[in-house]
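Job type: complex structure
Entries:
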Amino acid sequence: MEIPVYKQVDKIVFEIMSPKFIKEMSSAKIVTPELYDKEGYPVDGGLMDVRLGVIDPGLRCKTCGQKLKECPGHFGYIELARPVVHIRFVKLVLDLLRSTCRECGGLLIPKNRLAQYVTELDQIELTQGQSERRDRIAEIVAELKTINKCPHCAAKQKKIVLEKPTTFLEDDRRISPIEIRTRLERIGDDDLPVFGVNPRAMRPEWGILTVLPIPPVTMRPSITLETGERSEDDLTHKLGDIVRINQRLFENINAGAPEIIIEDLWDLLQYHVTTFFDNEVSQLPPARHRSGQPLKTITARIKSKEGRIRHNLAGKRTNFSARTVISPDPAIEINEVGVPKVMAMKLTVPERITSWNAEYLKSFVKRGTAQYPGANYVVRPDGKRKRITDETKEQLLEELQPGYVVERHLLDGDIALFNRQPSLHRMSMMCHKVRVLPGLTLRLNPAVCEPYNADFDGDEMNLHIPQTEEARAEAEILMQVQTQIVSPRYGLSVIGCNQDAISGNYILSKYLSFTRPEAIDLLMSVGIEDFKRVPNKKIVSGREVFSVLLPEDFGFNAEPKSNKPADIENAVVIKDGLLVKGVLDKSQLGAGAGLLLRTLHKQYGADDMGVILGRIYKMGINVLLKYGFTAGISDIDLSPEADDKIRTLLNEAEADVHRMIGQYEQKSLELLPGRTLDETLELRVLERLNKVRNETGRVVAENAVASTGTMMMVRSGARGNLINVAQMAACVGQQAFRGGRISNGYKGRTLSVFKKGDLGPEARGFIRNSFKSGLKPHEMFFMAMTGRDSLMDTALRTPKSGYLYRRLANAMQDLKVEYDGTVRDASGKIVQFNYGEDNLDVSRTEAGRINVKKIIENLG
Amino acid sequence: MPKKTPKKRSEAEEKPNFVVSDHVLVPKHEVCTEAEKKEVFDQYKVQPHQLPRITASDPAIRHLGVKVGDVIRITRKSDTAGEAVFYRIVSSE
């Protein structure tokens, strides 16, 4: 299929304005530095000339006849008494002066070789690109400046140096801009392409200014202070300087003043014109206000973070948004967001008055801006916004009728978009329903921390209130939290239980049983009001209580974690909405793990799944509230036998290491392939010491009491792992620093308490103690070393990987899967012939796979 | 950002004395017939410039004697799909 192209950008040409062009485009010639006359009216031929545009309301432009905000402004110009160098073209002018003859203006390349250079440059641009062409031009210029005889007229060439910023010296004699200009005029059009100058776009002598365009007043508006005084823009000040000096220069020249005075004024003019373009030229003192702060001239307006491009063009801001610190609230639903009352009274939703809701909306207006469910503005049908104040309230209430719009305060159930930066995936911005709450923080259900990657150590988040019906509908249908549950990255639930919610459900399904009233109490606390599914018997097990949260017809069999009997025993089996057996832990309820949540989502849809997940989460927390949950250092107390065992293991390991060191000293240690003796020892020692840490860990895992808070957190996957426990109870282990044991450093030892050259475990960062038994001073020091190292490592790595991700995301942002299954970019070029090569939409799979067997079973 | 283009390879490097496609890690490259080529264009409704490119001097197809404009069918092993078919159009440099 041929896609018709009506218009296509072929190329963009950048040109330089010629003096003639500047005069033609100008609507006024500026001749006087005065701004206003005695009546305060702009002077004709002054910098605020009325022909340059309007900045006062009510006036019409003398040039185009349009009003304020319609008239774009018009340029003027100044005729400079003497030419000055344009600071941005100094480099080019210097190159041209050096590479051309001072007498005839010919390029310092013999005629017959000129074509050769041009073709070479074109060839480089074609094969290697424009920046290489520029590199080559710089090389050619460097070659040419050493030539001292013109190949055309045989004139002797002198050495030209640039005395920064704008003075050119030829053998220590100054060349005036007038002379520079005449020399540049002599350069032929044919020679220019060698310098990368397009002769149709510019002539080099235009780099020396003879007329200066005056920007329109609309881009340098004056502001009226409260005192009625006028304060002019920085650019106007600068232009005033230029015009004033220019006039003086004219007068002195006409009066035939001595050359020194004229030169001085000329230099001054050069300074003002230079700082008008760029007030941060390194060799020049910046032009300042009377107060001493530097003027913001043209370059400062455009460049850097606060400049026009990055601040105004690339940086956009929005109304109806809010940002503050976040905090958790497990009592609100997953798809809700807690909004502080003060915010709810600033953020508004426009609602149009109809005959049905007129009274309802009037009640908001009646309450006004200061009382909570009130309103801030009334919008008349002609678009005029009126703020509701005590004075206007009565009149507005009279006036209100169908067609008016009331901007009422945020209410529970309003639609909001909630976002946390960095917005790396689509779950970083989701739609929540507003819940107005007391307090000053934005509240979110801790289950949605995972997709936002949020925690509560001071994180802030943004809230946006869509203002139109279309926007709200779109947000609600496409972006609500429950519609985002299944991740398009791996096809599992991105939200799930965490922390207490996991421990709670683990305890519930593994240990607890209740009397029937207790069970009903618990179920009520998670929002269940129908108890016919609670078994009618004296003692109700935790699993039976949990089953009430599940749909009645739900069936599910979890894959056992391994083939061990204990794991098979603990595998979750759900039949007809009953948790028959199994223990609920992170692998079932956690985010991004297990198929339980995924299956619920698939069978009952996003909305029901959202409700069920919310209840499971609350169940976990309420179980802990009732049952009580605590963790302490005694949780990991071991029996004396276990402690003995750990001690023996450590002693054995240390003895092994010392044996290896003995072999090393006698050079009888068996070398590892491709390693030196030193490397072999380090690797073997490291291996042995890591082994013993794992062994002690196993002892702890076997001997720790499984029903303590700490161990339950570890077993359920809620927090902590076996290594953490082993470090607390048995042995912290070897500290790794820069990929090995802590090295001996310059003085042959790690710390001065050890002998020089000590290779033993203790002297090289092996921490034998546990956190519970307490670290020895040198152990604590080694730990601090590795701790600081890893802190720095994370601090340095995070921005690097973030930037890498950003580059990938930007490179692929407009790739799209088409209806034929191909992945294409914006111009229709094929990137992949089948999406992911298997054409699967990952968010419709289970962990990237389609379980055909299960589908067939469900059919039958 | 300055980018360095590799130096032109010398004649000896141009023509190694082995065929890379014999290696297990090099997927199967084959030239499409005119009919197959038309089928590819019709199936995906693409213009030649919308197909991914491969240079005629690519080591994997150099020995096939291809000309600019030919379509190469590449059959690769895929982690997700087992086997995946890909097409590239031969371009000059």
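Summary: The beta strands of chain B are 28-31, 53-55, 71-78, 82-91. DSSP finds two helices and four strands in chain B.
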